[in-house]
């Protein structure tokens, strides 16, 4: 029985045997030498430049405190907290802005003057 091989099979066998022969020839000389640094032979550029995906939200918080002395000696402390959230798309265009303001009023007793 005569076996026939295709050109692709012969070339694959030739390439594999050649690689083994070259690897075997280099092995004894590299066994005594210092290890070579690993260097990437080929660096491939990315297919497409990466764009940021989705939206980006930034938050800005401002706090303002005002103390006011009342006629009867007590202290009125008003704290205003403003939170601004800005959402931008990947092109930098503002998509949404939310402003939340919270005001807290506390009345403290008159300070003791000793």
Short key terms for the protein model shown above:
alpha+beta; 114 residues; 3-stranded antiparallel sheet; 3 strands
Overview of the molecule:
By secondary structure, the protein is of the alpha+beta class. Helices cover 23% and strands 38% of the residues. It contains 1 helix and 3 strands. It has one helix spanning 7-32, and strands at 56-69, 75-88, 94-108. The chain starts with 6 loop residues before the first helix and ends in a 6-residue tail after the last strand. 0% of the residues are buried.
Low-confidence stretches: none
The secondary structure category is alpha+beta
Number of strands: 3
- Report the biggest beta sheet as strand number plus sense, adding barrel if it closes: 3 strands, antiparallel
Q: Give the overall average pLDDT.
A: 79
Distance between the termini: 119 Å
Series of H and E elements: HEEE
Q: What is the number of helical segments per DSSP (H or I, 4+ residues)? A: 1
What's the structural blueprint in terms of helices and strands?
Elements: H1 7-32, E1 56-69, E2 75-88, E3 94-108
Antiparallel strand pairs: 1-2, 2-3
What would you say about this model in short?
By secondary structure, the chain is an alpha+beta fold.
């Amino acid at each position: 029985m005569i076996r026939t091989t295709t050109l692709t099979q012969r070339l694959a066998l030739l390439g594999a045997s050649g690689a083994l022969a070259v690897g075997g020839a280099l092995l004894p000389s590299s066994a005594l030498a210092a290890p070579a640094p690993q260097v990437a032979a080929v660096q491939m550029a990315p297919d497409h430049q990466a764009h940021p995906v989705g939206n980006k939200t930034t938050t800005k918080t401002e706090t303002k405190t005002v103390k006011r002395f009342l006629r009867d000696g007590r202290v009125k402390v008003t704290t205003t907290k403003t939170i601004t959230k800005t959402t931008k798309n990947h092109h930098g265009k503002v998509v949404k802005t939310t402003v939340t303001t919270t005001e807290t009023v506390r009345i403290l007793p008159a300070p003791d003057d000793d």
